[in-house]
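Quick one: structure for this chain?
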Amino acid sequence: MQPEREIVNTEKIAARRLSLEEVAKLGVKDRIFVSAGTAELKLPDCYVPAFLTKSGENFEGGSVTARTVFQEEVSCLPDDENEAGIYLADENGSVTIEVLQSAGVVLDLALFVPSGDKGALTALYAAARQAFGADVVQIWRQGLKEVPDVKVDIFEEQIPRGRKGSDSPKRDRRAVDTYPTRADFIEFSAGWKPVVEIHRPVVDETPTI
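Got it. Here's what it folds into:
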């Protein structure tokens, strides 16, 4: 008879459950443990590392919110005995909890592959599999779109305030790129808007001797 295959990888650690009063003394850098279960996947009696979304003293009422290392937000009532609660690692803790480990990361990248034909993509995936293992790299999502060969200037322009036409808006260049490989992914400053224009090289008309 073959041993049962584990469906999750966990580590047992000594911990203690925190009361709401103790949670109120924590900051956003304090590592805690919250339930690993989500609406899509039930993982009973399993926990994940997390951090409060704001200092404990700033939460109102008995509910607090934490963000896990897997980027999921969890709300819970620490003092509610019917909920999983919040735990802190403690060698002298009275309980042992199972903490879910990371299996790896999913990369969400914008990759620009020159020519971008099937051969180039096959070579890209082959290199990744060679580096990490043939059965390890899995393509979860593949959204491909061809990019026109047009160079553009990406600016951010200050949103005018007050009467229109009172002042020329301020403009800063952010990048020169092939349309639109990067414009969709730049985070623009508050009060500024993105502007994309056909690239026009700067010509130095300073007379020379």
